[in-house]
Amino acid sequence: MSEKDFLQKVNAHLDEQAEHLDAATQSRLNQARQRALEHVKSSEQDHMTDVIAGTRFRWLPASAMAGIAIVALGSFLFLQNINTVPEGGLDDPLEIVTSNNNLDMYEQLDFYMWLVEEDNSAS
């Protein structure tokens, strides 16, 4: 006898016996079934709540590390840029200041002219 045949015979026998159960036993079995189904539903909802809560904070450490890496890299590049001298040196500060075509710099042109004069007199 194969396993499939055995399971079919057991199933048929249990179905036949279930038809002959008294009303009180059928009621208790039905109540137990309902409690089991409610338990499954509540545990599924709890599981989904845990999954949703878990995904909300799952990326937090990775996001924090990425943010720290971006800030560190940006700071490093900014400090590298500050410490470098343009190719032509600082021979003509007025040319460096005015090369950006920034209107605010043109408004303070007197100040930049004074800086050039101070640099020339210091040399």
Task: Characterise the protein shown here.
This protein is mainly alpha-helical and 123 residues long. It has two domains: 1-84; 86-123, no CATH class. The protein has helices spanning 3-19, 23-58, 60-82, 93-98, 103-107, 109-122.
- The structure class reads mainly alpha
- Strand segment count: 0
Largest sheet: none
Terminal CA distance reads 108 Å
Number of domains: 2
Descriptive terms for the model:
rod-shaped, 2 domains, 123 residues, mainly alpha
List the helices and strands and how they pair.
Elements: H1 3-19, H2 23-58, H3 60-82, H4 93-98, H5 103-107, H6 109-122
How do you describe this structure in short?
By secondary structure, the chain is an all-alpha fold.
